[in-house]
């Protein structure tokens, strides 16, 4: 017996997936029902702080580590300069994309020359110059250890940059003689520290001892920061934020160098879960939308949505291209840990020239051992790279498994924008097969929903979705639904047609 090719297999039967919404989102200011829209949220807008989290592992040679430090200096230089221009109250570290800066992006030769001076002055210290090799010798390391090293060099980095600004008359002398100078230089590490560190780990002899050691370091730094925040004598402004918060913010933003942003619309296969009604439908005051979806020949369920599908243009400029596309539902994978990502070998968002000049080559043109997979024509690497990107968007810890979640994922490359408007995609009226009112949904909100459906669906001569009321069922001990038979889809459609 031979397998039937995927394109000859029959499509799987239709099923229902459910989307909980508050009445404010559905019939309030956002008017998702009237506009036939599905909003795609950013990870930051979801209720799990580990959305899209990747367990980064840094494993590289001295070339990429030196370039990593150079990149840190570049981002810090940009942030300090922005604060100097905008004023001390401006929170420059809140700018979302500062880690995407490269040397090629600098607007003038003078800026590039200044950046070169900063890097030269920073690495003139023999301890700073030794950092890349000493860190590389540590082998694979994780976030807390990387953060520890950047914290120890942060003081020298700030001082070096501000001294260069003053030397080039870009800032007042007070930058290096006033309150900023009091920050001083944190003590740079030397080879003796790294030798002692290795010895401590050997003596500990326990798996995870290294990670635990640096997690404790992070915890100590965070406590010190809270102590400063509680001190009314310490000014809390943009300058202070750079001095104390820049290293962890920088580390957290490095994900931008690897992958484009993504957004998601969340669905579930279970409308009866009372906790989900409470969490996602405004404590049962909201509504649950039922969408009928059909699987394609490969067994993947999809939903047709209208939005930006690409970018076109000519010599006169570019323009967005809009159209219908069938987005694929993916069941969320619930696991015990986050996806592990090799940082240096996943730098896939920058262009080839920027990767070579800013990350994978030294001043003499020698290539890093990390460059081969990223820069080579390696189809296996490319597929694994995008698989990790997609899997991170649909992976959650096992604690969330009760939600039975299914997701539509939208890449920033497809939507073309991070703006809210570009993340509102339209669905076809016939895709919405049911509307379930919550136990606490008010009669006035129900009536508003029904009127919107009558007007919207009748205008397109579409059969209206069925209406249901959620209620507690003593027999099952669960939330169940009862159909509003007098308001069935067909009856409403006939009523709307007769009035029109």
UniProtKB/TrEMBL annotation:
From what superkingdom does this record's organism come? Bacteria
Task: Identify this protein by name.
Answer: DUF2971 domain-containing protein
Q: What's the source species for this entry?
A: Caulobacter ginsengisoli
